[in-house]
Amino acid sequence: MANFAVRLVHGPNWDAGRPIRGQDGWEEHAAFMDGLVDDGFVILGGPVGDGTQTLHAVEAADEDEIRARLALDPWASAGLLRVGPIEPWAFWLDGRP
């Protein structure tokens, strides 16, 4: 398994007038993401900068696995989020036990 930096960006149906937790389907999206954490796929993640993107540290075999798993997010099919850049990430410093 390898580590990747994955950015998720707002999709065409994102409502800029609402906060992230006020978007349609928030509960389903949050449950989906919690499941990815529970599976060990997402190591950590959350909004960065002005909140128009999220950054996730992901452990996966390759980019195809990342795209396939994130395609199952209810927000992906609803057009609220899309996968942005995916880059390999070498963890040289890691404070996890």
In short:
Helices cover 26% and strands 33% of the residues. It has three helices and four strands, in the order βαββααβ.
Structure commentary:
The protein has helices at 26-38, 63-70, 74-77, and strands at 2-10, 42-48, 53-60, 81-88. It has 97 residues and is an alpha+beta fold. Helices cover 26% and strands 33% of the residues. The longest helix is centred in the N-terminal third of the chain and has 13 residues, at 26-38. The model has no long low-confidence stretch (mean pLDDT 96). Strand 2 and strand 3 (53-60) form a beta hairpin. It is built from 3 helices and 4 strands; from the N terminus they run E-H-E-E-H-H-E.
Low-confidence stretches: none
Count of individual helical segments: 3
For the terminal residues, how far apart are their CA atoms? 18 Å
Q: What's the total count of β strands?
A: 4
Jot down its keywords:
26% helix, four-stranded antiparallel β-sheet, 33% strand, single chain
Ordered list of secondary-structure elements with their pairings:
Layout: E1 2-10, H1 26-38, E2 42-48, E3 53-60, H2 63-70, H3 74-77, E4 81-88
Antiparallel strand pairs: 1-3, 1-4, 2-3
